[in-house]
Design brief:
763 residues, 8-stranded mixed sheet, 6-stranded mixed sheet, alpha+beta, single chain, 23 helices
């Protein structure tokens, strides 16, 4: 086994004649190569740190400035206006090879040129930051770009180099601004007006006015102070208090899932698919470490913050009694694998060489063929990560803090990511609508003990070669894992490929040591805790109703002909569907990103507005109004730092730190989100032409309902002619039914499209 091979690198025995040392040349070779690989990574990080630190400058531009200064000197032109001579006089006098007049002159010119170069970098970086503060382009109508925006775009392109690295723009991104309290209060009152009757709204107005006049000014000062000091005044508190301090199970409540390509299948061989996919994932990680991934750019010129990508791999959420912590390692050379109740450690490298897809296929096939049974308590061990956080923290401290249990748990927690090999087969069959929902349920929670919900993500492999992800939410938001998934699926389909029989290309190396079984010693008391966590998780999973479907009549192609935003179109349809489903309006959450700001994550768009409710009521009465423009404007305000909920959330935290009571904030933050929605991003990486490969479509992903009596809805406008929906609710609520709501969504989309009298491709 792998550990055994490494252990014999150095052995010794004590004999009457002394100590006898034995060295393994092969094992020492692997140790040497691993060390070389580690130093290469360090040097690459140092190089990237330098290149990132001088962006938008470069070593080449530094040399150009020096050559210009030296060249002008030879032409008897002093472009330094006497500064070179001044620097030369200030250099220390003395003897040595650097004290000749020519050397002192060159050194002075180099110092002057470096100063000019650094000053230029600072000036360009600050100018770029000021330019990125301009968001007027977002509020202009499509196809009607102002002259100001055109000039702005030209300046952005001039100040951005052609080949930025992943984190090149980080220091040039503006900070998330703190909105004025009065503006936030006004937008909040507008958002709740359609949900409250006159008496309730008047009471809320009084609470808001009292808060704005008496409590808010003091809280706002502390928040502004934090915004000056911190990179982002929201993100650290959001991560800690919304995610890490949550004590309820991660499964269903926090983690989300992502689906595979659903209209094509590259292979039916489970191990082969894993070989290609995991090889592609580690290629992506290598690009990530070397910062070779291009930053995501809006309009091709506005950079998005990339800081969330840092913790994609080698990251685990560690449970605590009061709060969890995220453990991130700089590197990990193995993955943890679960199959039939057994845990394995699979090395990704042989020495310094990344295993080829065919080698990984062989290693996974060895795990699939392993007949050994689970050890006592091992089969349902991962249920600890699916249950309550306090119970998991206590069990971890009591039973996994020493001995073989600690070593085995560390092998999982220090892995690059977790891999689950399922014995069941799931996939999407367009002729069987229920197949997509069953596939989603398997990804969302599995059987409650075959996913390690604490890992940054679990790669799930079904017996028929279909894949999916279950991702932990604290470390990053869905677009980040989506970026990885697009790269991996594109690499698998268009770069790695398979043989005619569905296996990875090439011949594997049979001399590779097989994966290692992790060893456990789980006592009866711990097994009782595991069973208790499993029962909690199973009750939660059994209560989730998930309805996933593909909407075929139209996609963004028809919506664009309606001259409206596809997202706004769907959101208005959701409002109409919800009113038909429940007979009333509710507080609606739509996630939007704030990644145009440094360390930005998300903001809430309150989709239920006076305009959208008026539209719905008009539709019910047989007439209609326009509400999409209002939704688009709110979405843009949220993206540009003028949202409502993150500002109020931070004011609430400051009030708690100061011991200040605010009835207004307490009521705002206790309001339930009975309709929680999110659009799934796509085409962040152009790995292929979607027009040439229209069936290379993922179905997006989904999440559990936020409120016990509410719905969770995620959707992906997957192409010109289709939309995927993932709707979740709870069986225990008599007021919700995911499939019923899905049918209302279908009808609402068609009814709104009929308003524009655009022909649809009905299926």
């Amino acid at each position: 086994m792998a550990e055994a091979h490494q252990a014999v690198a150095f052995q010794f025995t004590v004999t009457p004649d002394g100590v006898d040392f034995r060295l393994s040349r092969e094992a020492l070779k692997h140790v040497y190569l691993s060390g070389i690989n580690s130093w290469k990574k360090r040097l690459i990080r140092i190089k990237n740190g330098i290149l990132r630190g001088v962006y938008p400058g470069s070593p080449t531009s530094w040399l150009v400035v020096i050559m210009a200064t030296v060249g002008s000197s030879f032409c008897n032109v002093d472009i330094s206006l006497g500064l070179v001579s001044c620097i030369q006089r200030c250099l220390p006098q003395g003897c040595g090879p650097y004290q000749t007049p020519q050397t002192r002159a060159l050194l002075s010119m180099a110092i002057f040129s470096t100063g000019v170069w650094v000053t230029g970098i600072f000036f360009f970086r600050q100018t770029l930051k000021l330019l990125l503060c301009y968001h007027g382009w977002m509020f202009e109508m499509h196809g009607k770009t102002s002259n100001l925006t055109r000039i702005w775009a030209m300046c952005i392109r001039l100040l951005s180099s052609r080949h930025p690295m992943l984190y090149s723009f980080q220091t040039s991104l503006p900070k998330l601004p703190v909105p004025r309290v009065s503006a936030t209060i006004q937008r909040y009152l507008e958002s709740v007006r359609p949900l409250l009757d006159d008496e309730e709204y008047y009471r809320m107005e009084l609470l808001a006015k009292e808060f704005q006049d008496k409590t808010a000014p003091r809280l706002q000062k502390y928040l502004v102070l934090k915004s000056w000091w911190a990179s982002n005044y929201v993100s650290d508190w959001w991560e800690e208090y919304i995610y890490l301090r949550g004590r309820s199970p991660l499964m269903v409540n926090s983690n989300y899932y992502v689906m595979d390509l659903v209209l094509i299948k590259n292979t039916d061989v489970q191990a082969a698919r894993l070989g290609n996919i995991i090889h592609a994932m580690i290629m992506y990680r290598r690009k990530l470490d070397r910062e070779e991934i291009k930053p995501v750019m809006a309009l091709g010129i506005v950079p998005m913050c990339s800081y969330q990508m840092e913790r994609m791999f080698n990251t685990t959420r560690i449970p605590g009694k009061d709060t969890d912590v995220l453990q991130h390692l700089s590197d990990s050379r193995h993955v943890a694998v679960y199959h039939k109740g057994r845990f394995f450690k699979l090395w990704l490298y042989e020495g310094a060489r990344l295993l080829k897809p065919q080698d990984l296929e062989m290693q996974f096939q060895r795990i699939l063929d392993d007949p050994s049974p689970p050890q006592p308590g091992e089969e349902k061990l991962a249920a600890l990560t699916a249950g309550g956080r306090v119970e998991w923290a206590q069990a971890r401290q009591a039973f996994f803090s020493s001995g073989k249990n600690k070593a085995a748990l560390e092998a999982i927690e220090r892995a690059a990511f977790f891999v689950a090999l399922d014995e069941e087969s799931y996939s999407y069959d367009p002729e069987d609508e229920a197949s997509l929902s069953l596939y989603g349920k398997a990804l969302l929670h599995g059987n409650c003990y075959n996913r390690w919900f604490d890992k940054s993500f679990t790669l799930i492999s079904f017996k028929n070669g279909q894949l999916g992800l279950n991702a932990e939410h604290a470390w990053a938001d869905a677009p980040i894992i989506g970026h990885l998934w697009e790269f991996v699926l594109g690499t698998d389909s268009f770069h790695l490929g398979y043989t005619e029989t569905g296996h990875c290309l090439g011949k594997p190396n049979p001399a590779l040591a097989p994966p290692t079984r992790l060893q456990w010693d789980i006592p009866k008391q711990c097994q009782a805790v595991i069973e208790s966590s499993y029962q909690v998780a199973k009750a939660l999973a059994d209560d989730v109703e998930l309805y996933c479907f593909q909407f075929l009549p139209f996609g963004k192609g028809l919506i664009k002909k309606c001259r409206t935003s596809p997202d706004a179109f769907v959101q208005i349809a959701l409002q109409l569907a919800h009113f038909r489903d429940r007979g009333k309006f509710c507080l609606t959450y739509e996630a939007s990103m704030t990644r145009m700001f440094r360390e930005g994550r998300t903001e809430t768009v309150r989709s239920c507005t006076s305009e959208s409710t008026a539209f719905v009521q008009a539709m019910m009465e047989g007439s209609h109004t326009k509400a999409a423009k209002k939704h688009q404007n709110m979405y843009r305000l949220a993206m540009t730092g003028a949202g409502i909920d993150r500002h109020l959330f931070c004011l609430y935290l400051v009030s708690k730190y100061l011991g200040v009571s605010s009835p207004f904030l307490a009521e705002v933050l206790s309001e339930p989100w009975r309709l929680s929605t999110s659009q799934i991003p796509q085409s962040q990486i152009r790995m292929f032409d979607p027009e040439q490969h229209p069936n290379h479509l993922g179905a997006g992903g989904g999440f559990g309902p936020v409120a016990d009596d509410g719905y969770g809805v995620s959707y992906m406008i997957a192409g010109e002619n289709t939309i995927f929906f993932h709707i979740s609710s709870k069986f225990s609520s008599s007021e919700t039914n995911a499939q019923r709501f899905g049918n209302h969504i279908r009808k609402a989309l068609l009814d709104i499209a009929d308003l524009f009298q655009v022909p649809k491709a009905y299926s």
